[in-house]
Specification:
heterodimer; A: alpha+beta; 8-stranded mixed beta sheet; 3-stranded antiparallel beta sheet; 11 strands; elongated; B: alpha+beta; 7-stranded antiparallel beta sheet
Chain lengths: 185, 266
């Protein structure tokens, strides 16, 4: 079976490549991993609203992207299946001078914007392991994540290292540690 | 396993070929050579169009029926004395009546060296195998289709045409040479005969073969510092990744496909 199948182009972003993408974003847009109610938005940090009247900060470590939905930790309340990817990252929440460290786990799906020729990632479920956070904080974290991820519009050519700009015919499909598309010029 | 895999089937590569041909643009060359008794300064330029791509593992791209559109300019320089004998008139005295003598002095006609400019345009259709070549030419990664061997160019029809054009051009140039009237037709025949089809074919080959055999069609060209996400406002600069390595091969797992393998670093 050919890779392009009935179409003429095929692009695959391997899990290793997705993680290099994530690392590049964290390094070059640090405000996507640093949030604070104490400072205005800058290239280094994004302003967030106070939490019940209290200032707080939120920091994500470098995330890990896994294209295997079974990657969720034992005991996770999250559910992931075909077409889902799993994000995990160290997380630090600091409120009232007290820092709490945990592990963020999120289930997400890739979203294609055909008219803009971009792909974004949307988080559908989130949990933090290792520390107990109130549901309000979890909801804020989920919103913060989705705001950040929706702003990361990855153009189609990135998935082929610039080899071509395709009209996507099928995909993105996730499986075998890769995210794949087929398409045509 | 590579970080990014991009694959094009033959249909897609055939769609990319015109872009590669346009990107290559006009190729040109100049030179000089001997052509029988003549010295020739020549220049040639041309561009490629059309062709049908077939892919063969592990790295061969065949382009069939590709058209090379060429223009050539020749400047043939030669000494007319090489093809027309110089004329020597020894002089004569003619006695008229008893005391009058008409003297025609001796003279020599040395034929000059002339320059004949000839321009010629045409097309050549050829088929050739190309190999995939990946190179890093700072700051870009490039995958090119580089011709594997010198293709056999069918130049005989063009050579016949060129001989005719040289004959016409020679007639125009030689008509201006003093005293050549009687020799004009012979001179033109002498010039074209001295060149001959074989000579013209050889000259065209000398001019055009390097241009065709030097063809490098760019199939992929991206900066190593690759823009992943464009800038989006004052706090969101563009995000780049580094293309650490690029490789290109042809595979056949059901149909022939061109496969580009890329490793990236943050």
């Amino acid at each position: 079976m050919s890779l392009t199948g009935p179409d003429h182009l095929y692009a695959a972003l391997m899990q290793s490549g997705a993680n290099h993408f994530a690392q590049a974003v964290c390094l070059q847009r640090p405000r996507y991993v640093n949030y604070s109610s104490l400072s205005p938005t800058s290239a280094a940090s994004t302003n967030i609203a106070k939490l019940s009247g209290f200032d707080w900060t939120l920091h994500f470590g470098t995330p890990f992207v896994d294209f295997d939905p079974a990657y969720l930790p034992a005991g996770s309340t999250l559910t992931a299946g075909a077409g889902h990817l799993v994000l995990s990252a160290p997380i630090t929440v600091t409120i009232l001078g007290q820092s709490m460290n945990g592990s963020l786990w999120a289930v997400a799906v890739p979203v294609v914007n055909a008219s803009a020729h971009t792909v974004t990632v949307q988080v559908t479920q989130v949990e933090v392991a290792g520390v107990t956070l109130p549901p309000l904080v979890l909801n804020v974290i989920k919103a913060v994540l989705n705001n950040a991820l929706s702003a990361l519009k990855i153009p189609y050519p990135a998935f082929s290292a610039g080899a071509f700009t395709a009209v996507i015919a099928s995909g993105p499909s996730i499986g075998m540690d890769e995210l794949t598309f087929t398409g045509n010029l | 396993m590579s970080d990014i895999i991009a694959v094009m089937d033959e249909t897609a590569v055939n769609q990319v070929l015109p872009v590669a041909e346009a990107t290559l643009g006009i190729v040109s060359g100049t030179g000089s050579s001997s052509l029988g008794p003549f010295q020739v300064q020549h220049s040639a330029s041309g561009w490629f169009s059309g062709g049908v791509v077939s892919l063969f593992p592990s790295a061969t791209v065949r382009i069939a029926e590709c058209t090379f559109h060429y223009s050539t300019h020749l400047d043939l320089q030669f000494d007319l004395s090489n093809i027309i004998p110089n004329v020597y008139f020894p002089g004569i005295k003619i006695k008229i009546f008893k005391h009058w003598v008409v003297i025609i002095p001796a003279f020599t006609i040395n034929w000059p060296t002339v320059s004949i400019p000839v321009s010629h345009s045409g097309t050549i259709v050829f088929t050739a195998n190309f190999r995939l070549q990946t190179v890093f030419v700072n700051p870009d990664w490039r995958v090119n289709a580089v011709i594997q061997s010198v293709p056999q160019l069918q130049l005989t029809p063009a050579a016949s045409l060129l001989i005719g054009l040289i004959g016409v051009a020679a007639g125009v140039v030689l008509a201006a040479v003093p005293f050549i009237g009687l020799y004009l037709a012979g001179a033109v025949i002498g010039i074209t005969a001295a060149i001959g089809i074989a000579g013209a074919t050889g000259l065209l080959g000398l001019m055009l073969t390097p241009l065709v055999s030097g063809a490098v069609f760019p199939l992929y060209n991206q900066p190593k510092h690759f823009p992943l996400i464009p800038a989006a406002g004052p706090f969101d600069p563009a995000v780049y990744i580094n293309l650490a390595s690029v490789a290109a091969i042809v595979i056949n797992s059901g149909e022939p496909e061109l496969k580009l393998l890329t490793d990236v670093t943050p």
